[in-house]
Amino acid sequence: MEVKFRKSKGLTDTPLTYCPGCTHGIVHKLVAESLEELGLIDQAIGIASVGCSVFSYLFFNCDMQQAPHGRACAEATGIKRVLPENTVFTYQGDGDLASIGIAETIHAANRGENITVIFINNAIYGMTGGQMAPTTLIGQKTTTSQDGRDPAFQGYPIKIAEIFSQIEGVAYLERVAAYDPKHVLRAKAAIKKAFTYQKEKRGFTMIEVLSSCPVNWGMNPVDALKWVKTNMSEVYPLGVFKDKGENHE
Amino acid sequence: MPKILMKGNEAIAVAAIKGGVDAFFGYPITPQNEIPEYLSKHLLANHKVFVQAESEVAAINMVYGAAGAGARVMTSSSSPGIALKQEGISYLCGAQLPAVIVSVMRGGPGLGGIQPSQADYYQATRGGGNGDYQLIVYAPETIQETIDIMKGAFDTADFYRNPVLVLVDGLIGQMMESVDLDKPVVKRQVPKKDYATTGTKNHPGRNIINSLYLDPQELEDHTKLLYAKYDQIKQNETRYELVNMENAEYVIVAYGTMARICRSAIEILGNQGIKVGMIRPISLWPYPKAAFDKIPFGCKGILCAEMSMGQMLDDVQIANRGRFPVAFFGRTGGMVPEPEEIVAAIRHFQDRVVK
Q1: CA of A65, closest CA in chain B: separation in Å?
Q2: What stretches of chain B show up as alpha helix (H) in DSSP?
Q3: Between A44 and which of A22, A87, A108, A163 could a Cys-Cys bridge form, CB atoms 3.0 to 4.6 Å apart?
Q4: If you ran DSSP here, which 8-state letter would residue B58 be given?
């Protein structure tokens, strides 16, 4: 019998802890498949961050370190500098990366650390129960912006891909989304490209993935995916923000 | 090797290289800048790792990453910077990662000042990070002793899989003394780092560096393992020096720079016919409680002398167990006392007895 599909060897058999309808599981699969297809699983070191993905060290089938909140890129720097031949990646949410860890992330990018950052943007703090994130949309209701985010008091959604596109050390930067099969495939290609660039020692690579959080958004999974497509993609346009490789050689 | 004249901070850097440091991560702060400056040149020249981080917080987390990957790692800072590193220090202890941390103390609290101080005794021995944990803390008195401790610190950290804090003050960091960089130190056998995340092709199974245990029973069990290790450290790593203790009328307890000053005071007092001894803790954690059993019967009291408002004083009182009257002398804020001030404190011991 021909095998048409199987679970990636980049994932363990541990059941995922994510909520129904959450897109973390899809992105885990894409990262795992990319590592497997590039033959990198046995030399990869991943960093689990604080947030919903804190247990990703149980799910990715490679060596893992769990980092303090926001510090994943500092950990990754420490690892990569002493093990430059290994593949090093972080897996971070928007609270971790865009709020408490923006300094560590931006400076790792600016140093051109040859690491790959998988950045899950779901516009909310999921693990702690739905508080406002720096990426929360204007008007979006959260447990700490109960009348909707008001720029007069809570500022604006922070655009990580746009900010990081200005940074010299970034080799590849794309914003993708996980709301339908077409975009999931696009996300896979982007993640694989990022790991390929790392293998080729081109510098810092980051893939921002627009993701859904139906539980904390108060939506069913289908509506949540629609909201990513209509509302989030409007504020956070998809696309390649930087690709040094295009003009390489 | 003949002795050479060397500044404390540079000697710390040289000793780190001799101790086998693979990687340094740090952030500038006075009065310890000569350590990263020296290492930036000499580590990179030897194909080792040096990164000037964007903050102390980032630096200690780089230490965590590199230590988890199996390297011999170090960072250095001074008081407010060490405060910022507390998060990472707690994680290092929780995940059982070895590292050497050098703290060159300056005055506090807050931005405080940049002159020598010992006001971070609590920070070093009582933690500033969260949770049940301990650092192995050494407080050398001379630059030679600092070198010897630094050279062995990486072995000690690796042996116990726990961070070692080398605690000096700005005076030791900034002054020059003649030193022998190659004075032999005891080498110990350290276990292979089979926990390191180096990629699964390099070891059986998956290696995970982690301090998260959501099940309270698991976390208690894990913490008890740490404490079994701390008991072993208490047994094996407690270090102190006794000075002039025979028939001492008074005993001073002092460490680091303050101990140097007290040596001069003890000499002056001896010339005045007052016999004074000294307990000099070298390890601040584990604290050398057993040294207090060596205080001669008939001693009139213990003077705890610190460049702080009285932090080690707590440990002195715990170790004394109410046996002798305890007095305190302290200068703080970067004030370094003259030996005559210690002489006066002993001569007016009764006025300084801690109630």
Answers
A1: 4
A2: 8-18, 34-45, 56-68, 79-84, 86-94, 121-125, 143-160, 170-174, 216-237, 256-271, 313-320, 339-347, 349-352
A3: A87
A4: H
Closest chain B C-alpha to A50 CA, distance in angstroms: 10
Residues of chain B predicted below pLDDT 50 = none
Residue A3 in domain: no
Interchain proximity B61–A57, CB inside 8 Å:
no
Distance CA B254, CA B328 (A): 11
- B49 neighbourhood in chain A, CB within 8 Å: 81-82
The percent of residues above 90 in pLDDT, for chain B, comes to: 98
Domains along chain B with CATH numbers: 4-237 (3.40.50.970), 241-352 (3.40.50.920)
Cα–Cα distances in angstroms (integers) from residue B268 to residues B155, B253, B274, B351, in the given order? 39, 17, 9, 20
With respect to residue A5, please indicate whether it lies within any of the assigned structural domains. no
Cβ distance B62 to A43 less than 8 Å, yes or no, reads no
Instruction: Evaluate if pTM is beyond 0.90.
Output: yes
Mark residue B112 as left, alpha or beta (left: phi above 0; alpha: psi -120 to 50; beta: remaining): left
Chain A hits for B65, CB-CB cut-off 8 Å, are 47, 65, 67, 74-79
Is B116 part of the contact surface with chain A (CB cutoff 8 Å)? no
- The answer to whether position A215 is within a domain reads yes
Provide the CATH number for the domain around residue A31: 3.40.50.970
Q: What is the pLDDT of residue A249?
A: 45
pLDDT tens for chain A, 249 residues long, are 899 999 999 999 999 999 999 999 999 999 999 999 999 999 999 999 999 999 999 999 999 999 999 999 999 999 999 999 999 999 999 999 999 999 999 999 999 999 999 999 999 999 999 999 999 999 999 999 999 999 999 999 999 999 999 999 999 999 999 999 999 999 999 999 999 999 999 999 999 999 999 999 999 999 999 999 999 999 999 999 999 986 544
Task: Quote the number of domains for chain A.
Answer: 1
User: DSSP assignment of B281-319, as one string?
Assistant: ESEEES--GGGGGGSPTT--EEEEEESSSSSTHHHHHHH
Cβ count within 10 A of residue A129: 12
Check CB contact of A107 with chain B, cutoff 8 Å.
yes
* SS3 per-residue string spanning B236-271: HHCCEEEECCCCCCEEEECCHHHHHHHHHHHHHHHH
Residue A4 lies in a domain: no
CB B181 within 8 A of CB B5: no
pLDDT at B127: 83
ipTM above 0.90, yes or no: yes
Would the CB atoms of B197 and A47 count as touching at under 8 Å? Answer: no
Range of the domain at A131: 24-247
The distance of B54 to chain A (nearest Cα, Å) reads 7
Q: Chain B: give the shortest CA distance to residue A66, in Å.
A: 5
Helix/strand/coil for B177: strand
